[in-house]
Specification:
The structure holds two protein chains of two kinds. Chain A is built from 33 helices and 43 strands. By secondary structure, chain A is of the alpha/beta class. Classes of the chains: A alpha/beta, B mainly alpha. At the A-B interface, β1 and α31 of A face α13, β3, α15, α18 and α20 of B. Chain A: This is Quinol:cytochrome C oxidoreductase.
Chain lengths: 1017, 427
């Protein structure tokens, strides 16, 4: 504030020409400081009694005294409830069934809650539940405790009460009604029948209301195709467990294609049973999870994929639409088509091509096959977005015809390719409202940023599939002053009920006569549905249109990463640190380029001295849009002529600084089509990746991931394809299993825990990695630490490429290398993956060796063995020598280089009170300088045992679980007690396919794997 | 807390004279008005009325002492048997009483006969009997201290005798020397011996050995002292509410697990939430005179109950919750470090260990304190000594049978069952 007041220290100052004031201004001390008095006398200084030694003594004494004085224990306060809720017992977890529906991920789940705090997501294993929880769903519980959430609604940037917000919207609605202005409700796919009903009510009161559904990652073309045939806006249901031959053209059936959730059914058919397993042929551009798991993978450009589709159409239906030959892979495509035709009803074809014709053709082909796996009546309703309506909305907004825009669960400013137009249009809208959990790109531009609750704080219903009605229930009171869109609509329509009451009444017609409480308890209710009748499909027209497809330059195939999805959980450190299953890079998105194209464009990847992966930058240009500084990763298996880029990164609003990584691929998502034509040019500079796996290939070491073909598996003895390693004992070849350096401990009494991992069923989805994160309080260390290979994941999923076309050939090549120089050159060459390699996933956690190398080298006995098979780790005993990690052949031990909690250097969830609410109180949070590793979830097995003891009964099979085995929806991980001979894991341990990792070193692990069988023929 | 309302047995002398006088004044009229058996009445009162009424002081219903004087007997019969009917009938007095007491309807007691009611009224009309004045426990104290003094006297006398002996010996020695001198006998002067410390200092071996011994002993004590760091045995902090386990668990014999109910099923033995306190304290708003001790007066205890009411938001005057709560910040006494996992359920429910085994004689503790050291050695020792309780537990049947055969013992200890493994408590 400006002021004319003059402050003075003495009257003298008021005198303008005072010499005293002048002197004082130049000289701080009026009198000379008598420095000489104590420094000038050299004699007294020399004879002074305080020597340097004395000084140090005093310092030492005062330090010791201070530390002794500090030896008093802290006073811990304990505050019980005033009125304890009946269902909460401190120390005992409660489980609530609910449903996640965030517009991208939909799943029936259970929420584990401790002392009223949701701390973990579990699968809802009740018969009939839909879609197991994937990595993002498991991580979603942490997004509840996001410290950057919108805590209170804001009107024009100022915090406002809900009454003000509702009054303002209501006034705007009335104004729109009076003036006839358009009101648009723009939401993500909520798949919520009750919300639809509420919007219909709103429309009844305000006739100009229009509902537009917008999916950030659109399935609009597939939806259009399905709707035109079956009359329902949805997607066909598929059950891959019923298929013998699966052909997928560009559909990542193990990823987010059609919203995901197919891995359980897929894995069922992949485990060889009675000599049979399904055959999976994947035709695609980017290396996807599905491609990595396929028996045969054919990398093709988008145009070629369309050609392939038409060829398959020709073969299956006997049509003769003219196609051009597909370079190099024509024969293989034809072979796939023949196999599909031969399988007839047992075959199924799916596609992820973003093209109405392609989608129509697939519907036609599956109908022609009368495929059992194809079930259009079990229509998936979790995608409903309409690209045309969204485009129309942007046009309308710019034309000024949208009066009020109400958004919920969408962030178009970030996710629309024509975001600039949207922003311009937004300025012409009289009132814009964004219901959002974050003050994101959109919410910061709208008139009203309405604070929306997390799904764990909300009521709701979800129709994931026709006839499958799920209920979402809150598991915690809203942490902030938030309200759901539904509640707001009820208030705008002046309906005097709460959304809960409305929902309860509404649900009655959907729950098949079940009681409301029963449905809330189960989480869902299933009812029979009539089958849909198919309309005519003009397949031949579509086929001939597709046959015209030609590549123009490079194809850009936009995809979603397993960890990040559409990017709405970008501020979730668990997901940021989650290594991508394919590239194993975390904290980034990047352009995936084939090796050939990279050479052509001069793009490179290289490792620097500390092992970190570096890469070139590229500039992408789609139409008139350029995206610069895109890091490049050379991706084995990427179809030549294509590049891939993942959505969900490059966000800047509502994100901590550390999470603002990557580039925004949505800017290239023109017309919401994931297949674009792109030009790529090299850019200056180098990018530092945080990649956790630098060794790409298996180097012909068939004993690490043992695999065989279905033919050999069926015809030969296990000894031929599951070779037991031998060692020399008394100069005789002896199976490694039988050689013991130590006296073996008798483990036949009591429990003996084993974990079985079936490499055939494991799809590499990574749900277990995040589940382990959540269960065991694994810290997040950040990009630069991951780059230094200091990631803390207790469970990693190794991904290996073959350096020849198959892993089998690798072994042959390695064995054929003769002599030193040949070996060196052969092995060096083997470090490079093949152009279209085979891929294998292998989850590796602590193997809990019965003869553990780590235990013998610990100087303080911090790690020791339990009778029940677990390798224990006593953190408080560990002094951090790291001998154990060095002696571990599996490299599964993790060292706490820093204090990762309550440390502002690691500003992730463990650094704020809110984020720490997710911590599992049953597991210790480790400190700096301590080694940690997988404990085989001993807290869970102990709890299971205690439950049985309290109830005075034996433990039933299936009761023992670890976080990873419980999270595994594909059934690849089975945990249990092998001393219980009837248990599933005991039977798996006796299976012919069983082997131990690095068996020849005689560690006798309690984790075992099952030989991977590929159906190649 | 001892039962309140039983004012027949006052144990303390300090009873204000004025207070007594007030009551004695009313005695005369009361005796005339009531004819009934107060002893029977007391039993009936306790079984039927005490849930809502007290003799002196308001509970859900009004205080009942001297109620027979206030109202007509016939009216009381009707009221007690069915007050609602009486109010309905428009009885002015009934309506007034009803309104005065916050319109809380009183339960009808049609089962009580007029004679029963007379008995109850006789009881309510009783004058609180004056307690025989108890002379302070001086006698017992003095006898206690008496033994202490006598011991000291004996020791003192002994010391005196010994001292006198020393003096006498010295004197005798002097006298003898003098006699010898007098007799001309030359007393050979003693050769001056080397002082023992000098001898000691000259003997290097001894110096070395004792230095080592000294260092070892010092190290032993230093170690012992260091190991006490973080061990808070005997920790008895001042709590925000003076809660006496002695009164609750000791005098009144309330089971530990009535309040600490989570100990049965959870790893935590919870600090009871305040609503659990209110299960009893809704009716018990003061302690009996007998509960007070020289150290803690009745007023002190009543004040502590009032603290509970303030915390839980209970207004004793209106007998209702105000809704204003103030959670109590108890000071936690038993603090296990984070890296230890201890489950109460395992020990309490499965093993059937008494709470007192680890927490000590809680029922005698006026102020709760940490009884055990809670060190790992202490835990492990118990695991080594305690047998697993396998009776009637199907879980242990097979494993115990096989394992005991293997170890050749009849009963397995917790240690043999795996209770010494690091990972069982540290994860």
């Amino acid at each position: 504030m400006a002021s004319n007041k003059k402050y003075w220290k003495s009257v003298e100052e008021l005198n303008e020409n005072s010499s005293i004031v002048e002197t004082l201004r130049n000289n701080e001390f009026v009198e000379q400081i008598p420095v000489d008095e104590f420094l000038g006398d050299k004699d007294s200084l020399a004879s002074g009694s305080t020597s340097r030694r004395d000084f140090l003594k005093y310092v030492g004494f005062s330090t010791a005294a201070a530390s002794l004085a500090a030896c008093e224990g802290p006073v811990v306060k304990s505050i019980p409830y005033v009125v304890q809720p009946e269902e909460i017992i401190p120390g005992v977890a409660d489980y609530y069934a609910t449903t996640i529906a965030d517009g991208f991920d939909f799943a029936n789940i259970l929420i584990k809650s401790r002392e009223g705090r949701p701390i973990k997501v579990e699968n809802n294993n009740l018969e009939g539940s839909r879609t197991g929880a994937n990595a993002r769903v498991h991580a979603s519980v942490l997004s509840l405790y996001d410290s950057l959430r919108l805590k209170k609604s804001k009107i024009s940037g100022k915090e406002a009460e809900w009454s003000e917000v509702n009054a303002k919207v209501k006034a705007s609605l009335e104004d729109a009604k009076a003036t006839g202005g358009q009101v648009v409700v723009l939401t993500n796919t909520m798949a919520s029948p009750s919300t639809d009903a509420l919007i219909t009510n709103l429309q009844a009161q305000y006739p100009t209301v229009k509902h537009v559904v917008y999916d950030a990652v659109s399935e609009s073309n597939a939806l259009d195709a399905f709707e035109s045939v079956y009359g329902v806006r949805g997607l066909a249901g598929y059950d891959f467990s019923k298929a013998d031959v699966i052909v997928s053209i560009g559909a990542d059936i193990l990823g987010d294609w059609q919203g995901g959730g197919y891995d359980a059914g897929y894995a069922k058919g992949r485990i060889p049973k009675n000599g049979k397993m399904s055959k999976h042929i994947q035709i695609e551009a980017n290396m996807s999870l599905a491609g990595a798991n396929a028996d045969k993978r054919i990398p093709l450009t988008v145009a070629q994929q369309k050609q392939a589709l038409v060829k398959i159409y020709n073969v299956v239906t006997g049509a003769a639409v003219g196609t051009s030959t597909i370079e190099k892979y024509d024969a293989e495509v034809m072979k796939a088509a023949q196999q599909l035709k031969a399988a007839a009803g047992k075959g199924v074809l799916v596609t992820g091509l973003d093209d109405v014709d392609a989608q129509l053709l697939v519907l036609a082909i599956n109908t022609a096959l009368s495929s059992e796996a194809f079930n259009p009546s079990a229509t998936k309703l979790t995608r409903k977005g309409n690209a045309k309506a969204v485009a129309q909305l942007v046009t309308d907004m710019n034309a000024g015809s949208v009066h009020t825009l109400i958004m919920s669960g969408v962030n178009p400013v970030y996710t629309l390719a024509n975001s600039k137009q949207f922003v311009d249009g937004l300025k012409k809208v009289k009132l814009s409202v964004a219901f959002s959990m974050k003050e994101d790109e959109t919410a910061s531009l709208t008139t009203i940023a309405a604070a929306a609750p997390h799904y764990l704080e909300s009521w709701g219903d979800v129709m994931m599939e026709r006839g499958h009605y799920s209920v979402m229930q809150p598991t915690i009171r809203p942490l902030f002053d938030t309200k759901q869109l539904q509640e707001a609509i009820l208030s705008w329509t002046e309906t005097a009920t709460s959304y809960y009451d409305y929902l309860k009444a509404f649900a009655a017609s959907n729950i098949n006569g079940k009681s409301w409480n029963q449905v809330v308890h189960d989480g869902f209710s299933v009812s029979e549905v009539s089958s849909l009748s198919a309309g005519a499909i003009d397949a031949s027209t579509s086929a001939s249109k597709l046959a015209q497809a030609k590549s123009a330059g490079l194809d850009l195939v936009l995809y979603t990463k397993t960890g990040m999805g559409d990017g709405q959980q970008a501020n979730n450190p668990w997901l940021q640190e989650f290594p991508d299953p394919i590239t194993r890079a975390s904290w980034d998105n990047y352009l995936t380029v084939s090796k050939k194209d990279a050479e052509k464009l001069g793009l490179e990847n290289w490792n620097v001295a500390n092992g970190g992966l570096n890469g070139s930058y590229a500039t992408l240009k789609v139409g008139n849009t350029t995206l610069s500084k895109v890091p490049v990763i050379i991706q084995p298996g990427q179809a030549v002529g294509t590049v891939g880029l993942a959505f969900g990164y490059g966000k800047t609003a509502g994100l901590k600084k550390e999470m603002q990584v990557g580039v925004n691929a949505y800017t290239l998502y023109t017309n919401l089509n994931s297949n674009q034509s792109v030009t790529v040019t090299k850019e200056e500079g180098e990018h530092e990746f945080a990649c956790v796996q630098l060794q790409k290939t298996l180097m012909g070491r068939g004993d690490i991931i043992k695999e065989t073909t279905l033919e050999i598996f069926n015809t030969k003895d296990a000894a031929d394809w599951n070779i037991v390693p031998v060692v020399s004992l008394d100069h005789k070849e002896t199976p490694a299993k039988e050689v013991d350096l130590w006296t073996a401990f008798d483990r036949s009494i009591g429990h003996h825990f084993n974990l079985s991992i079936d490499l055939n069923a494991c799809t590499g989805c990574g749900a277990c990695v995040i589940a382990c994160h959540a269960e065991n309080n694994v810290p997040v260390v950040g990009k630069s630490e991951v780059r230094r290979s200091r990631d803390m994941h207790w469970l990693r999923i190794d991904r290996y490429y073959s350096s020849q076309d198959t892993f089998d050939q690798d072994v042959v090549v390695k064995n054929n290398a003769k002599g030193l120089s040949d070996s060196i050159s052969t092995l060096t060459a083997m470090e490079d993956p093949a152009e279209n390699p085979q891929v294998a996933f292998q989850p590796v956690m602590c193997q809990h060796c019965n003869h553990a190398p780590c235990e013998t080298v610990c100087p303080v006995a911090a790690t020791s063995h339990g009778k029940e098979g677990q390798n224990h780790m006593a953190y408080n005993r560990c002094v951090g020598t790291r001998y154990c990690a060095n002696n571990c052949p599996y490299k599964v031990r993790r060292f706490n280089w820093f204090l990762y909690n309550k440390n502002s250097e690691f500003d992730y969830h463990m650094n704020d009170d809110l984020g720490r609410m997710v911590i599992n109180p049953d597991v210790n949070v480790r400190s700096r300088g301590v080694m940690e590793k997988c404990s085989m979830c001993i807290q869970m097995t102990q709890a299971t045992k205690l439950k049985a003891k309290r109830e005075g009964r034996l433990v039933k099979d299936g009761e023992f679980q670890t976080a990873c085995s419980a999270a595994c929806t594909s059934g690849a991980m089975v945990f249990g007690d092998v001393n219980d001979k009837e248990s599933q894991v005991a039977k798996l341990a006796e299976d012919d396919r069983m082997y131990h990792l690095l068996e020849h070193i005689g560690t006798k692990p309690n984790v075992f794997y099952h030989v991977k069988v590929r159906n190649v023929k | 807390m001892k039962k309140v309302g039983n004012h027949k047995s006052f144990s303390k002398i300090f009873f204000s004279l004025a207070f007594m006088l007030t009551f004695s004044l009313s005695v005369f009229s009361q005796d005339a008005a009531v004819g009934g058996d107060p002893a029977k009445g007391k039993a009936l009162f306790n079984s039927q009325c005490a849930a809502c009424h007290k003799l002196d002081g308001k509970a859900t219903g009004p205080a009942l002492r001297g109620v027979a004087d206030k109202y007509e007997k016939e009216w009381l019969y009707k009221w007690i048997k069915n007050s609602a009917d009486l109010i309905k009938s428009g009885d002015a007095l009934a309506v007034k009483v009803f309104e005065e007491n916050g319109k809380v309807p009183m339960t009808a007691f049609p089962q009580l006969s007029n004679a029963d009611i007379d008995d109850i009224l006789a009881y309510t009309s009783e004058v609180p009997a004056e307690k025989p004045v108890v002379v302070a426990d001086g006698a017992s104290t003095s006898s206690d201290s008496g033994t202490g003094i006598s011991n000291n006297v004996i020791l003192g006398a002994l010391a005196l005798v010994l001292g006198m002996l020393v003096v006498m010996l010295f004197l005798v020695n002097n006298v003898l020397t003098k006699i010898a001198k007098a007799n001309g006998i030359e007393v050979e002067p003693k050769e001056k011996a080397v002082p023992i410390w000098v001898a000691f200092a000259r003997n290097h071996f001894l110096v070395l050995v004792s230095a080592i011994a000294f260092l070892l002993v010092a190290a032993y004590f230093a170690y012992g002292w260091m190991m006490q760091i973080g061990v808070d045995q005997g920790y008895a902090p001042v709590q925000p509410i003076h809660y006496s386990h002695k009164i609750h668990a000791g005098d009144n014999g309330i089971d530990c697990k009535y309040c600490h109910s989570a100990a049965r099923v959870s790893k935590h033995s919870n600090i009871p939430s305040l609503n659990v306190c209110m299960n009893c304290h809704k009716n018990i708003n003061e302690v009996a005179e007998t509960t007070a001790t020289p150290e803690y007066s009745k007023a002190f205890y009543d004040g502590e109950i009032q603290k509970l009411y303030d915390a839980v938001g209970w207004d004793p005057a209106t007998q209702s919750y105000t809704g204003k709560t103030q959670p109590v910040k108890w000071v936690r006494i038993h603090n296990l470090p984070d890296h230890v996992y201890f489950s109460h359920a395992q020990h309490v429910t499965v093993a059937g260990v008494d709470c007192q085994k680890c927490h000590g004689p809680v029922e005698e503790m006026e102020i709760m304190q940490q009884h055990a050291p809670l060190t790992m050695g202490w835990c492990i020792n118990c695991h080594r000594e305690t047998n697993v309780k396998v009776e009637d537990n199907e879980y242990y049947k097979k494993i115990h049978e096989e394992l005991s055969k293997k170890y050749g013992v009849k009963q397995l200890t917790a240690a043999q069952m795996g209770g010494l493994e690091c990972g069982k408590c540290h994860y």
